[in-house]
Amino acid sequence: MTQVGIESIGLYVPRYYVDLEDLARARGEDPRKYVAGLGQERMGVPPPDEDVVTMGANAAGEALRGVDRSRIDTLMFATESGVDQSKAAAIYVHHLLDLPAHCKSFEIKQACCGSTAALQMATAFVAQRPDRKVLIIASDVARYGLVTAGEPTQGAGAMALVVSAQPRIVALDPEWGSYTEDVMDFWRPNYLDEALVDGKYSIKVYLKALTESWKQYAAESGRTFADQDRYCYHLPFTRMAEKAHRHLAKINGVDHPPAEQIEASLRYNRQIGNSYTASLYIGLASLLETSETDLTGQRVGLFSYGSGCMAAFFSGLVLPGYAQGVQRGRAEDMLHNRQRLTIDEYEAFYLHELPEDGSRYVTETHRTGRYRLAGLDAHKRLYESCAPNRQADAPVHAVAAT
Asked: What is the dihedral of CA 389, 282, 113, 200, to 10 degrees?
């Protein structure tokens, strides 16, 4: 049987953040409510010239380092922050990354679980065509509104995975457990920019979906709770993973699961916040890149939850030499070199709106990665490729994707 898994990964987060203690004080809250209660320390904030396309392209550029792009057969872009009702965000990225014309490119949506649906499809495709590779991008901006209960759980980020029959990081197990139920715990109608959420209900559905998808996974694989050395969970906020892990342990008869089973997977999320489709895989990157122990040969259990809802539980084995395939050091540098926003600056970014009348508009240049949203013209989004490590006021070279 063909071994299929993750050959490379790439992470990208905005170059700006809000400190959650600053936000708590501005909202008249005890900082411990956010930092201790939610487990969040910082929240990634994209500037007006950054969106899911630019973040996804930056993450994918990292994942494609050393990868033969001519063998990328398919690009799947998972997001719930889409920029167009018809044209896939994947098409813009295809252009920005100069991927081959034969590379199929499309968008996938099912809340935060869309990236995992993409991964499941990618593994099946590669198993049939071991000579091909699939690029998966998960990129999102979590928005709940200013001065709302969900505001401190916002965030933004992107992950990219190259799936192939030559995995260097994680070999995926073939068994999957899934769960689907029509619920209204979280949704965003087309006419709203912010999501609507029933927080307490969503937590209940999350845990139910975890229970049911685990049952199917355990039945298909024959594995027990102890057969997974580490665990990664979807992270709407960091404390949710801790609650989920205790729940999964309890239904398996384990009263006190070791904290080290999940601790390393939570480090990045504390600094980034919720990134929807990218969340689970940012947790996986955090585990692989920050764990103090060698993970070679360890099995990682992964739980993906998408409100509405669809969930999946699956697993994979960490491969020898995985440390050479991850971004150890690069991701931490990116997190440490971000710019701290005042609350006024954060709110200005948040309230910025693009024109909807088709007029030409040029976005102000801020700190971004290699790509930025240059503006709009006749309702067309225009993207630019930028020199690496440029300053906010440095000139850029336009490469418009329309």
From this structure: -110
